[in-house]
Specification:
Peroxisomal Thiolase, Chain A, domain 1, 13 strands, binds acetyl coenzyme *A, five-stranded mixed β-sheet, alpha/beta, 321 residues, 10 helices
Amino acid sequence: MSFTITGTGSCLPAFTVQNDDFTKFVDTSDEWITTRTGIRRRHFIKDETLSQIAVEASQKALENAGLAAADMDLILCATLQGEDVSPSLACLVQAELGANCPAFDLNAGCSGFLYALHSAAAYFRAGMANHILIVCAEQLSRFLDWKDRSTCVLFGDGAGAVVLSRGDSLLTVRTGARGQRENLQVPGRNVSGPFWHDTEKSRSLLSMNGREIFKFAVTTVQNEIESAVKDAGLTADDVDYFLLHQANGRIIDSARTRLHQPEEKFPGNYEECGNTSAASIPLLLDELNRNHRLKKGDILLLCAFGAGLTWGSCIIRWEKN
Ligand code: ACO
């Protein structure tokens, strides 16, 4: 016994930034960003807070599932870092929803949603839950180096949520990691005081070796998709939708070409949202659900990679009407 997805929800901040807006403070162009990444605009938190968008996504997912916060046995929040270091974002969401269950955050970079699904599956298998709320909420804008054109144009903020209930829709779920700092790091250190030096204080923002992460992403996505379909006893042709981490359109195109699959099977939100880290796949899933693109029985393959380095994949049968 594992789970089935009974509800989805999402929330994007109101403030939208176009590619051209970056030309005011870094040497870039709409043409470069669009050609190299496919991204056209992204949302940044300005008038909301991270917990507010996480709560709104969660409320919509509960409503879509026809369940109340009181029905939840666990709230799992995937985020690079919550609104505060403590309390966790999951605890802030739990309080605001009025739920009465354990709540904790996990950080697996952009693979956070897959790690949360894997953890939730273990709770269901152990008989520890009937309903679990997963909310993935990210505010990457807090960690961007606005002087670094190679990274600040890539990311966006947002929140996506799912409600899982006991069921048999999970065909396989896999996660992996190869810990390293050198190619992708968000130190987030804010050490200040009489006993520390400035150099330690200044190391807080995101830095990335884009080319190395690109190579890692293309190989990982390919390997994970092949392993996941094999684990589930399927082939790529059996998959109705591939919901891949929305970091860069070229990474998604590369997977699609290698798998010889049509473009319609690879929906995307990177054009409108940029890379929203752990929130990217649940945001996309909610969009497909609300636009009635998913049919009962559809096979969905989810696959992500990210900071850590981490990765994960999952195959789910869609059971909602
Ligand atoms: N505007 C204009 N020029 C730029 C910009 C920009 N915004 N950014 C970089 N360039 C320049 C570079 O300086 C370089 O110039 P040079 O040749 O004179 O040195 C040139 O463009 C090419 O740079 P590359 O890094 O080779 O460009 P590439 O085609 O690899 O695209 C990118 C860069 C988009 C970052 C790509 O490597 C990528 O998508 N990598 C993967 C990122 C990713 O998926 N991250 C996900 C994990 S994030 C997480 O988990 C939090």
